[in-house]
Amino acid sequence: MISPLLLTDPVVFLVPGERVDRYGNTVQTFDVAREIPLRGWLQHRTTAEATDDGDAFVDRLVLVVPRLPATAVPVGLLRVRLADGTVWEVDGSPKAMRAAYRISHFELVLRGVTGG
After folding, report:
1. Sign (positive/negative) of CA torsion 29, 35, 36, 39?
2. What is the DSSP string of 45-81?
3. In a domain, 101, yes or no
4. Per-residue pLDDT tens listing for the chain (116 residues)
5. Within a domain: 35
6. CA–CA separation, 29 and 110 (whole Å)
7. Which range marks the domain in which residue 94 is found?
8. Within a domain: residue 53?
9. How many structural domains is the chain composed of?
10. pTM of the predicted model, to two decimals?
């Protein structure tokens, strides 16, 4: 298990809630999100991605957490709010990191969210 001393960053996982839209359909929305606080460790990672106009630099974060939030919603559909108030989407599936035949921690790649 990863040492709690390394988990210096408070984060909040946002689990989308459900509401009925104007057509009577049940939809998931972050307007009524459930919040799950955890402590983690953040590492900034900038990557260059090729576009038609040349390389674009994309900011991503790697979030290390000791466990994943218990939720029926797949982790890849969650969002994470950092201590500074910015909201990031989980980009892909979490990666379980093993040490001595057991899971030590999980790593999640986050990408910035603009708008709702």
Report:
1. positive
2. EEEEEEETTEEEEEEEEEEEESS----SS-GGG-EEE
3. yes
4. 677 777 889 999 998 888 999 999 999 888 888 899 999 999 988 766 676 777 666 778 999 988 887 776 777 688 999 999 999 989 888 888 888 888 888 999 998 766 54
5. no
6. 19
7. 4-11+40-112
8. yes
9. 1
10. 0.78
